[in-house]
Design goal:
The strands form four sheets. The chain has a three-stranded antiparallel sheet with strand order 1-2-3, covered by helices on one side. Strands 6-7-8 form a three-stranded antiparallel sheet, with no helix packed on it. The longest helix is centred in the middle third of the chain and has 20 residues. The chain is built from 14 helices and ten strands. Helix 2 runs antiparallel to helix 3, helix 3 packs across helix 5 and helix 4 packs antiparallel against helix 5. The chain has 420 residues and is α+β, with helices and mostly antiparallel strands. The protein starts with a strand and ends in a 7-residue tail after the last helix. About 3% of the residues have low confidence.
């Protein structure tokens, strides 16, 4: 606790929480107060004697195990993320740090945890562990401690900003960017693929009577072509793609759009999107509109077999048997099958498509936009649902080849040639 005389004549009493670096709210004695220093001394003494005041009570010295449990019980992160955090805590963090009180936690303890995660495997497989295990452990530990500060279980995070230096260079593989030839080959394979489904057909009867049902074989081609095309040409995430309803697309306007504000997840059918920035409305083309109209015609046939009609709240991409949305993993699995079969020719030589994933179609879309230097980077960032232009540039900026050379030509293009 200390007393400071300010330039304007007032006096400020500054203090800290007991056994902490965290400062409390300063107490200011207004300028012009008679015998101001005496008043400040008296106020300082009153604060020191307020032993039962909440501001001066000593917090419990929680262990990392207790703080981790508080986090798991009260955090509001998504179910999938929660499961990952729980696994990282159980496997990597708590065996090494769980017993340590927060007041005794040192960066050397975290270093030992990192070394263990870098050198030991816990999945029964052979070989050196990936660096992402240690990276995930540090990230999750920081999340727990920052959460504990936010909820006032602890006054400050003793390792904030100190774990990055403990980690080696990441061994994460470089992102795979599919070529135009590869994407065309995959879409061609998807368009020609033939599927036979066993479909239960319901015949709508009189009210109060049960609907008679039988099973037929339904053969369809190009089932996944349209969703895969949308993924490659709009950059939509697979979970967002599965959650699209007819209400989300405006096909009648001269400038058609698609609104994205939901995503399918394991915990809820219509879960929130990944981040607040993921909620967006993007432009689509007349090609997209025509494909959607074709999809609606097919869906009408699927629904009528069940005695139903398509309405605005129905999902666009639906299972013909359940009439419900696809799970994102289903689309990824089917996409993988297309990739295994897809190929293209280079100088009459057959070339198989690399191990491209459905999520790589999002990166492909970003790369096609960035190759066109006429597309504003802010528009690209908003179209992808990124939090900032800086994030988009960090992720994809290296794809803007030739942009600097074009800028050089632009810089001299408006002036008279100095050589003439």
């Amino acid at each position: 606790m200390s007393i400071h005389k300010n330039k304007n004549g007032s006096v400020t009493i500054r203090w800290r929480y007991k056994n902490s670096r965290k400062e409390g709210k300063p107490v200011t004695i207004p300028a012009g107060t008679p015998k101001i220093m005496a008043v400040a001394k008296k106020e300082e003494q009153r604060l020191k004697e307020a032993k039962n005041d909440l501001l001066f009570t000593e917090r419990k010295d929680y262990t990392i195990q207790e703080l981790a449990q508080f986090f798991l019980d009260k955090t509001k992160i998504k179910k999938g993320h929660w499961k990952n955090c729980e696994a990282v805590l159980r496997i990597h963090i708590l065996p090494m740090l769980g017993h340590i009180p927060i007041s005794k936690l040192r960066i050397s303890n975290v270093e030992e945890m990192v070394e263990r995660s870098l050198n030991e495997r816990f999945d029964g497989k052979q070989g050196k562990p990936k660096t992402r295990n240690a990276e995930g452990a540090c990230t999750t530990l920081q999340m727990v401690l920052n959460f504990s500060v936010e909820k006032d279980y602890i006054t400050f995070n003793p390792i904030k900003g100190k774990t990055t230096s403990l980690l080696p260079k990441s061994d994460k593989k470089k992102r795979l960017f599919a070529s135009d030839e590869e994407v065309n080959a995959i879409l061609t394979e998807a368009k020609n693929a033939v599927y036979t489904h066993k479909v239960t057909v319901g015949i709508k009867g009189t009210k109060g009577l049960k609907r008679g049902e039988n099973i037929i074989s339904l053969t369809r081609s190009g089932v996944y072509h349209i969703p895969f095309y949308f993924s490659a040409t709009t950059g939509i995430r697979r979970a967002e793609l599965c959650a699209l309803t007819w209400r989300d697309v405006d096909m009648e306007s001269s400038e058609p759009t698609m609104s994205i504000d939901r995503a399918i997840s394991d915990d809820e059918d219509n879960d929130d999107v990944k981040t607040e920035y993921s909620r967006r409305t993007i432009s689509i083309t007349q090609t997209h509109v025509q494909l959607l109209k074709e999809r609606k015609e097919d869906q009408f046939s699927e629904f009528i077999r069940k005695g139903r009609v398509v309405d605005a709240d129905d999902y666009i991409f639906t299972n013909p048997n359940t009439l419900d949305h696809y799970h994102p993993d289903t689309l990824s699995s089917e996409f993988k099958k297309m990739v295994k079969k897809a190929f293209y020719f280079v100088s009459e030589q057959k070339v198989n498509v690399r191990n491209v994933t459905l999520h790589d179609m999002r990166h492909y879309h970003a790369s096609t936009l960035l190759r066109n230097n006429n597309v504003n980077i802010k528009v690209i960032s908003e179209r992808l649902g990124h939090s900032s232009v800086a994030f988009t540039l960090d992720e994809y900026g290296h794809l803007m080849k030739g942009a600097d050379l074009e800028a050089a030509h632009e810089a001299v293009g408006f002036l008279n040639d100095p050589l003439k």
